[in-house]
Design goal:
Number of domains: 3
CATH class of the largest domain: Alpha Beta
Radius of gyration: 25 Å
CATH topology of the largest domain: TIM Barrel
Oligomer: single chain
Number of helices: 14
CATH superfamily of the largest domain: Phosphoenolpyruvate-binding domains
Order of helices and strands: EEEHEHEHEHEHEHEHHEHHEHEHHEEH
Distance between the termini: 84 Å
Helix content: 40-55%
C-alpha cells in the first residue's frame, strides 16, 4: 500500500523561527525522526521528545518524520506537526499547549484603539515579539496574508500563539476568513481568549449578526466569560452604503474599519496619497460609527518607508473623525499613536473651555464665552472628551483644573 505523506511549515535561507515538517505514515517500523537544526546539539532531544509526544497524542505509531528547523519555538513545532498529522489522518482533536496566565485578560468596548498591527497568521517570526511594539491591538491575520492552501496550518499556529505569546496587554485580535472557513477560524481561536474579531469584506448587518451568533455559541459551549468584541471592515461600495446598519448590528461591535485597497479596487480606481477618491466613503464610515456610538478606524498606510507621509495621513484622518488606523510595520506605531493623541494645545484649549463653562454655570449665566468666542454645548462636549482622552493616556493630571505653568 502507498504511504501517506505531507509537508507543512516553511524552510529556506530567509526563514526564521519556523520549521518544515515532512511526515510520512508507514504501516510498521515504529517512529523515525531525522532532525536538521543549528541548535540540534543543545535542543535536539527536547525537539524530538515534543514530536514524539504529539505523534503519540494522535495515535501515530509508525512514521518517518523529517524536520528542517530554523529556530522554531516549541509551540511552532507542535503546530506544524499537528497540521501534518491532522491532514493525513483526518483527526480534529487539538494538541493544546498550556495557556500562560498573562493572556487571560479581558478588554473593554471603549478602550483606546489608535494602532492595530497586522501580523501574517502563518509567519511565526513576526509574532514572537509582537507585544514589545506598544500597539494598542495585535491582529493575527488568517485572511488575506495567508495563502488558500495554508489556511488550516495558519489556524493551528495562531491558536498556539494566542496561548503562549505574551501580548503585554495589547488587545488580542484575529482577522478571520469569510463564510464556513471563518467559522472554522472562530472555533479554533475563540477558546483561546481572543478579545476582538475582525470581520473582513463586510457588506451587511447579517454578516455581523451571523459572526456574533457563532461566537456566542462557541463561548457558551466552552464556558467563556470574557466578552469578544467585533470590528467589521467595510471594503466595498455596498459596505460603505450599509455602514450604519453594519455599525449598529450588535452591541458587541466596538469599532468599524474601512479597507481602502479593496474599496478602490471595487470602484475600479487608484488609491492616492491625497485620498480624494475615498473622501466620501471615509466620511460615510465615520458618520455611521459616530451615530452608532462606536469607534471609526481608518485603513492602513502602505508605504512603510514614508514616515512624514504617514504623519500627514494620520492628521488628515484624525481631522475627519477617525480614532485609529491599521499598521503593517512596527515602525508605524509611534507615529500613529502620537498622531491620534491630543497634543498640548488641544488639551489646554479643552481645559479652558470646560473651566469657562463650569464657572458660567455656577454663576447662572446663560451665555458662555471664552475670549471673543461663544461656547455652545457641542463645543463643551468635545472639550470634555478631549480631557477624558488625555487623562486616559496619562497626558494630563487629575488636577487639570489648576492652570498650567
Amino acid at each position: 500500500m502507498e504511504m501517506k505523506q505531507t509537508i507543512t511549515g516553511n524552510a529556506g535561507l530567509k526563514v526564521r523561527s519556523d520549521c518544515q515538517m515532512n511526515l510520512a505514515l508507514r504501516h510498521k517500523g515504529g517512529i523515525s525522526i531525522d532532525l536538521k537544526s543549528k541548535v540540534k546539539t543543545l535542543y535536539g532531544k527536547s525537539i524530538k521528545d515534543l514530536c514524539l509526544e504529539v505523534l503519540s497524542f494522535y495515535g501515530v505509531r509508525n512514521a518517518d518524520l523529517t524536520i528542517d528547523d530554523s529556530g522554531a519555538l516549541p509551540f511552532v513545532l507542535a503546530a506544524r506537526l499537528e497540521s501534518a498529522i491532522r491532514r493525513l489522518i483526518g483527526n480534529d482533536s487539538e494538541f493544546l499547549p498550556p495557556i500562560i496566565g498573562k493572556n487571560l485578560y479581558s478588554t473593554t468596548i471603549g478602550r483606546t484603539r489608535f494602532s492595530r498591527l497586522y501580523l501574517p497568521g502563518n509567519n511565526p517570526s513576526l509574532m514572537i515579539n509582537a507585544g514589545l511594539h506598544s500597539a494598542h491591538g495585535i491582529i493575527l491575520d488568517l485572511e488575506d496574508s495567508v495563502a488558500p492552501d495554508k489556511k488550516d496550518e495558519a489556524r493551528i499556529l495562531v491558536r498556539n500563539a494566542l496561548r503562549l505569546i505574551d501580548f503585554r496587554g495589547a488587545e488580542r485580535m484575529v482577522r478571520i476568513n469569510q463564510g464556513e472557513t471563518g467559522l472554522k477560524d472562530l472555533q479554533s481561536v475563540i477558546p483561546q481568549n481572543v478579545n476582538l474579531v475582525l470581520i473582513p469584506k463586510c457588506e451587511s448587518a447579517d454578516q455581523v449578526k451571523q459572526t456574533d451568533a457563532w461566537i456566542s455559541e462557541i463561548r457558551k459551549k466552552n464556558k467563556i466569560r470574557n466578552k469578544v468584541f467585533l470590528m467589521p471592515i467595510v471594503e466595498s461600495a455596498l459596505g460603505v452604503e450599509n455602514s450604519f446598519t453594519i455599525a449598529s448590528a450588535s452591541s458587541n461591535v466596538a469599532a468599524v474599519a474601512i479597507g481602502l485597497e479593496d474599496f478602490t479596487a471595487d470602484l475600479g480606481i487608484q488609491r492616492t496619497f491625497e485620498g480624494t477618491e475615498s473622501l466620501y466613503a471615509r466620511s460615510r464610515v465615520v458618520v455611521a460609527a459616530k451615530a452608532a456610538r462606536i469607534q471609526p478606524i481608518d485603513s492602513v498606510f502602505s508605504d512603510v518607508g514614508d514616515m512624514e507621509g504617514l504623519k500627514q495621513t494620520v492628521l488628515r484622518s484624525k481631522a475627519l473623525g477617525f480614532e485609529g488606523m491599521g499598521c503593517i510595520h512596527p515602525r508605524q506605531i509611534p507615529v500613529i499613536n502620537e498622531g491620534y493623541s491630543p497634543d498640548e494645545s488641544e488639551i489646554e484649549k479643552a481645559r479652558k473651555i470646560v473651566i469657562a463653562f463650569e464657572e458660567a454655570s455656577e454663576k447662572g449665566l446663560a451665555v458662555v464665552a471664552l475670549g471673543s468666542k461663544m461656547i455652545d454645548a457641542p463645543v463643551v462636549e468635545r472639550a470634555r472628551n478631549t480631557i477624558k482622552m488625555a487623562e486616559k493616556l496619562g497626558l494630563i493630571n487629575t488636577n487639570w483644573r489648576t492652570p498650567c505653568k
